[in-house]
Amino acid sequence: MSENNILEVLFASDTNDHQVTCSAWDYRTGTNLMNYKGGGSGAASRTLCLYHSQYVLAANVSKPLLHVWPINAQEQLSTVRFVMPGTVTALALSPDDCYLVAGIQEILYIWHKATGRMKSILTKHYQTVTCIRFTDDSSHFASGGKDGTILVWNLTRAVSRSFDNENTQPLYSFNDHGLPVTDIHIGAGGMRCYMYTVSLDRSSKIYDLSDGSLLLNVVFNEGLQSLTVNGLETQVFVGSNAGSIFQVHTDSIPRVKEYHKEEENKTFSGHSTTSIVNCLALSLDGQTLVSGASDGQILVWNIPSRQLVRTLTHKGAITNLCLKLMNTMIFNPEHKQPLEFRANLKRMMDPVEADEDEVIEILVTANDLENDENRYFSHVKNSSSKVYDSSCSANQNELESLRKEVRHLHSVNKNLFEISAKQLLRNHK
């Protein structure tokens, strides 16, 4: 593949009664690379995902359906049909492409993508879920709802059958917004990251997920609908429900700040004042901002000059934007998908079976085992010296016997782990 064919591709979806649901664009030239058809009345907001950069997923805006297109074909896959438990209002695919999380009304559903099994049902929101975002290491995800609540979940705990899913609690529960949460952005660094949120209550907040603290609250003059953040996380762009896009520099503002009229020189004005800026996306170099609104316009901006560079017109309200770096040769019809899209999503959870594949996290650290052993035997030795001070020799023999038994158990456990790992890998080939 030629490096000349590598570029950032813009994927966009809208709501319309036309045949095209999603489109792929070269936003630099305005060239339409592919149109994805057959999505009915359009794609719901916050539901566009790319699976292994080979398939495009989007939820129907009015029906309980999940549409899937090969990235180089206009028509949907005929071999799969995803009927969801209800109309999807938010959708997210983990960065490792292993788990799919959907918000349906106020309930969160989690599926294991490879098998299609429903792994968990979470019911901690009180109103409709509006957005779902994963950390970059796929270990946690955050969900925001119309109840103004943002919940941060540990994915492993959420899908594990060893916990009672009805009583599974989120890691964090933030209730600082007074109106519906409309968008969430999670920065880099796993759980050592910052989380950015916007709401119709006119505020944008920044949280530190390492300790769950609120770092910053910025208040605007208009209700907020969308946001995106640059790679260095020094600039936050928020879209309002009155057609405005505001730029905030996080390295030069206090803990609580109100965005005043005199800062209008930091505003991108191009959408009509009656439109809602539903989605935003930033290029990798941080020089280009792309915005989509309810007026059917996708606007491409040069950030340093705040100049409008290009306009891409759709026939319905723009609901999703996604920028992805890829080779444009992938859009050729002759391109063969290296990964087969399999496993329909089940609509109900299966009962726990003895042979069911489960998520198992194993962390083995030799130093930790040794330290634990030393702490344990030190505790035993100290206790023994207090109670059996007159029989030190017997205690030493007992301790040595226990040490020998623990070393034997470590060896058995190591062999068992190696055999199990080989068996699991053999079954998944």
TrEMBL record:
Name any Gene Ontology BP term.
Answer: DNA-templated DNA replication
Keyword Repeat belongs to the record: yes
* Gene3D superfamilies hit by this protein: YVTN repeat-like/Quinoprotein amine dehydrogenase
WD repeat residue numbers: 122-155, 277-311
**A Gene Ontology CC term for this entry?**
rixosome complex
Question: Which InterPro entries does the UniProt entry name for this protein?
Answer: Quinoprotein_ADH-like_sf, WD40/YVTN_repeat-like_dom_sf, WD40_repeat_CS, WD40_rpt, WDR18/Ipi3/RID3
Q: Which UniProt keywords apply?
A: Repeat, WD repeat
Q: Which residues cross the membrane?
A: none
Q: Does the keyword Disulfide bond apply?
A: no
Q: Per the record, a Pfam family?
A: WD40
Recorded protein name is WD repeat-containing protein 18
